[in-house]
């Protein structure tokens, strides 16, 4: 198995995505949590099955996932709310693992 650190697209922990009621919104760490479980309305609108891994999802490990529709310029990142923060950080062990790797990398 390829170590996650070798295939991650992220090289550092992104800044917080914003604040809600003064509380920081955690950034997306490309864990794949959302798009591996179901397809968003944008993906369905472009022909993907609503259930299971979205056919537009690219990448094969936590930290490497990206939206092919955005990558190819079919839709803007704002269309899928990329950069708006993570809506599933609790219990997301894949995201936790990416965060640990990025934090360890930052420590050197
Ligand atoms: S890969 Fe893109 S189109 Fe598919 S569910 Fe994720 S954000 Fe939506």
SSE arrangement:
Elements: H1 4-7, E1 19-20, E2 23-24, H2 33-37, H3 41-45, E3 57-58, E4 66-67, H4 68-71, H5 93-107
Antiparallel strand pairs: 1-2, 3-4
Structure notes:
The chain is mainly α. It has one domain (29-107). It is built from five helices and four strands, in the order αββααββαα. It has a two-stranded antiparallel sheet with strand order 1-2. The chain has a two-stranded antiparallel ribbon with strand order 3-4. A hairpin with a 7-residue loop joins β3 and β4 (66-67). The protein binds iron/sulfur cluster (SF4). The site of iron/sulfur cluster (SF4) has 12 residues, from α3.
Task: List the defining traits of the structure above.
108 residues; mainly alpha; two-stranded antiparallel sheet; two-stranded antiparallel ribbon; 4 strands; 31% helix; globular; binds iron/sulfur cluster
